[in-house]
Design brief:
585 residues; alpha+beta; Immunoglobulin-like; TIM Barrel; Oligo-1,6-glucosidase, domain 2; 4 domains; eight-stranded parallel beta sheet; 27 strands; globular
Length: 585
Amino acid sequence: MLQEAIYHRPKLNWAFAYDAETIYLRIRTKRGDVTSVETIYGDKYAWSQTMNTAEMSIFASDELFDYWEASVKPPFRRLRYAFKLTDSHGETMILTEQTFQSELPEDSLTFFDYPYMNPADLFNPPAWVKDAVFYQLFPERFANGDPSINPPGVEPWGGVPTPGNFFGGDLQGVIDHLDHLSELGITAIYFNPLFAAPTNHKYDTSDYMKVDPQFGTNELLKQLVDECHARGIRVLLDAVFNHSGRTFAPFVDVVNNGASSRYADWFHVREWPIAVKNGIPSYETFAFERNMPKLNTENTEVKQYLLGVAKYWIEEIGVDGWRLDVANEVDHHFWREFRQTVKSVNPDAYILGEIWHDSLMWLQGDQFDAVMNYPLTNAILDFVAYGKRDAKQFADAIGRQLAEYPLQATESAFNLLGSHDTPRLLTICGGSEQKTKLASLFLLTFPGVPCIYYGDEFGMDGDGDPGCRKCMVWDEEQQNRDLFAFYRELIALRKSSPALRGTGLSFASAEAGSSLLAYERVLANERLLIVMNVSEERAVYSLPDSPASAWTYRMTSGASLKTGNAAAELTLEPLGFAVLQLQSK
């Protein structure tokens, strides 16, 4: 048994309260090295009366490690515990907080300790998010519903996007096309910024309390939110609190009055007077963008202003949460106050941070409900689109991600394949509609909260910004209706299947050197098997456990199943897939 590979700590993603009664315990071992693990647990003040054991099971694996998990219910909200590990040679070890031992100590004093399940510490994302299917909408490019409020110099709809041009997308255009979102099956919208700003993307805010006039009014946004809610669609706004725009009134005052401005401490000015030398501003910014000065969220007035913004749009307009731009560059203390403010107005509000890397420290229940899951994006695209990973490497990457976060974070993770910051999915897939379908199939059958970027359902293409921000295609002759039908069917499948909205996932086939992937989603009596062939060659897969007659199709493309009482054999054409359900006995 390789002791160096064994790891646990009594917090973070290794020991966490899932609800008011349940604690999840996890431990890591070298892959394939340990055959069984159990936890010995009880109450520290009544150890002899409450001591119990629970078998642990492998819930994820990566290229190096197996990750074991068990859920236990402490009798008095407290937990003291150790682990008993056994390898294939029959060697047994006990792991306590202090050391490895050959025998279980009589005294539990050296065991791991989960001191108390305080309700205030519980990480509790809103329940509705687990069932949501999001749609990301770039307002300036979705639909022009009111030409009377077009900005100056607006170009004809469908032209070539540039970093600076406008096409007149607005809130009325969204209202006019809500039927499309309902038909697709969308239950939540994430809007890129709507507040007043000089650019087409609006990430350089001028006025945080006002909808940009080219989009409409605060009252029109309220109408849109109400109409969305009537359809069962939630609304998420983009909060740009890391930085403002250069035309934000406090920064204009700083530019005009220098160090004597009453707003001088609202920003991070390194050198007076304000200037830009060799492309580097004398004040801190997003990246080195002179038009996006970084806000000082440690300043009391700045905090009061931004927290008031966060409260206003939920309280007065009725939005259902916030997506937080450049969230990892804002201090943790501000985000803790932000969460308290938002949740005091609407406990069911969804708080989503834009972070592209390991985000565990933002997902402890005191800051965000979720982050944008770009590591998942990259893993899927490396497997399906780029061919950089085989099935085993992909499964290992997924296993590692599942082990990195508490269960609640996995359930509420915002999973996506593209956004306004990335090339279009179809373009990444080299124009292959079938690869686009395979990537989307995994996204919509994976734990977490899937999001479709506007237009992907119609096969829109485009490179990175500005190519990924084309005008939405509303001419049916230019729409890929087959792809739309696929997305609509896939979303309907997810919404009708409790297993697909749960967290249980296991890989049935993910071999080194192979492009065939099979995985199961199981919840109660529902068992789904998803098989996909990412190669350009035909593949055959033998289904587990049951004859072919026991399985039925839920979705399929380029797949055929031998029927009868013999062992089930599934033939997949190049880039084919099948979603099968085992019939209940």
